[in-house]
Amino acid sequence: MSNEKDKDQGPAGPPSLDYLIRPHHIALLAIFLIVFKDFDSKQYHPCFMLQLYRMLLDEVAESKTTHHNTAADLKKRVQALPVDEDDSDAKLVLKMFSEFNLVTTEELISFFSSTSFLAGEILRLNMSEDVPMLFPEKNDEDVTVFARRSIFGYFCRKTFLGYSKLSFNGIIKLHEDFNLWWNGIEPRAGYKRVPKDDMNNANLQILRTKGDRLEWAQADRYETFLKAQAVGDDTVAKEALRAAFEQRFHEHHDSGVRQYALLNLLRMHYVNNEFEAARQILNEAVDTSRIYLDKVSLQQCISLLHRFPTKYGRDDDKRPPLNELQPDLNPLDILYDVKKLMEESHEQPMSLSFMKITEAIGAFDYWFDHKLETTTEADQFAQHAVQSIAWSIVGSEDLARIESEIVIVFTEAEGADNNRLTACLNQAYRRARNGYYEDAIAMLLQPSVWKGISVADYGFWAQEIWHILALRASRRGQDRLYRTYLLPRRPPGDFNPRLYSHREVPTPEAKKSIADKLYEVLQMRECDQSIIAIEPLLSALWHSEFLLRINYYRTGILFLADVGLHFGFTQRSRKMVEDIMPQLVTGNDIEQRALAAFILARCIIMAEGLEASALQLAANWLLMAEKDFLVLQMYRAAVDVQYLLSIVYDNMGAESERDEAAKRHLATQKQFRILEEVYVDEDTKAVLEMVSRIGMALNSRKYEGL
């Protein structure tokens, strides 16, 4: 029974009239003749036939529309078929196919007409009696192996008719291509586009039907556009896109697909951050979509318009332009609205982001139910990648890790999927935040992460590796390495220098974020100006609580407790840190845990005095802070912790522990001074050189030209 939804999709398109016999067709036809010749007299094992049918269905269906298996791949698939020890017929099939060859043109003609050279022996296969027995003619009452309209019968008949239309020059060319392909000399021999117009036709066919005289649209030129776009060759990409949509799609004069060409060109400029050029094309794409009454293309153009960066005036509304939920709205555009809502400059709480994520999930379900499609099948995992970022912002690192792992597990490795790359980048940076810098860099340098990504995505990948190296250098206190070596080699892209040095001055036009206000608190505390630090600290706490930026809120509470110690609010500061410590002790953010343990130890010492129990409790928290700071390689902070720890042990009368803490203090100071004087880190240099070589390899990937 047919599905009611199929009726709304309109009638299926006509079958393709374009068919040329290719080298792999001959090899597949040889398999059919070897296996199904005198089929009733053979006793194949069921397991062998099951795997053989699966292989033949996959090859005959030609799901790989552009590139087919090489001869070596096809031979390997045949030899991999399961054969029992007592299945002599199956063994004979493998032996005959491995020795199959057509050395001369006469043997190719004999293969299709009177004889077939298989396994070095001449097996009589009269075409009028043997090959047609695989498929019946219209009035044929003989029993055959394949039904006329079966997929195998249709393939055999189509291959035979394709050969019958060839001229003698065409047969010679087919034999040359087959030998090059079969012997592995030229795997692409026989698969190039054959011109069909009268001026450029090579006269390979003696009988030409209407489908052989007209050049119908093929996917190879659009594939060239995608490959050129992936390697950053804009010139070839534009030319391939023009050629792809100037092809003959139907017999009418107006193709009706011009808006698709403009939409693809618009996306290419947008991905390359060429917004001015994209705006110019956008107006033309909108007008063309309206002329052709294409609601889907018009909706995509409007959605892209909402993605362009907006320049706000002083009195303009700062709320971002969002898409209204509509049937033709792409779910990915709704997820991009989530990105806008998560930006601090728009001052929107995270609850709105989760509402938009719910809308995107509903839109995906609607598109699935109505058989609409996004760009790739992997786009269904985009909402998991966005959820990973959203949960991380609200402080639920465990949920964020689960969502990112869903994307990594269920998407294809070594592909061009941006969702997988985003999940890998975020997961690697989380590892680096917890001190596992080498593991994070090793994860991103795996070929499964970067192999197959586009040049545009390579920029994000290279930026993330640079950010990890800069994070490690700033935590180690390697200011010289950071400023003289890393900064000049920073990949282009978004960059906030205050992430690695809070002493940097923000740009005047930039609006102060929550992080900027916390940086001001650090600067004021270093200058012993706690009174001035109160205003930006309270503002950061209010905004982080309202916007649900829980990580910033936790840091703000720790800073508030530290400022409270300066004013003598020891008990209140201790209570604040103890209340928030259960959220930090899990270790999802080791830096926050180390800072909290250090502040809590100071609160205990100042609140309880020199009591033995209080000093022991403070020493335990200081040991945790010391361990975490050393894992993070934050030696400057570790020196302060070890110094305070030695004083605590001295007041406790624990001389051996005091001496050990003092030795660790001196060793950490020495390590810090050594790293501080480093100008060029060999590991950092090797990583950046590897990133450059990978970029050159990605940019020099070969693709088929026009």
TrEMBL record:
State the InterPro entries in the record.
Apc5 (IPR037679), Apc5_dom (IPR026000)
Q: Does the keyword Cell division apply?
A: yes
* Residue ranges annotated for the Anaphase-promoting complex subunit domain, each copy included: 225-310
Swiss-Prot/TrEMBL keywords: Cell cycle, Cell division, Mitosis, Ubl conjugation pathway
Q: Does the keyword Membrane apply?
A: no
Of the GO CC terms on this record, one is:
anaphase-promoting complex
Q: What is any one GO biological process for this UniProt entry? A: positive regulation of mitotic metaphase/anaphase transition
What family is reported? Belongs to the APC5 family.
The name this protein carries in UniProt is Anaphase-promoting complex subunit 5
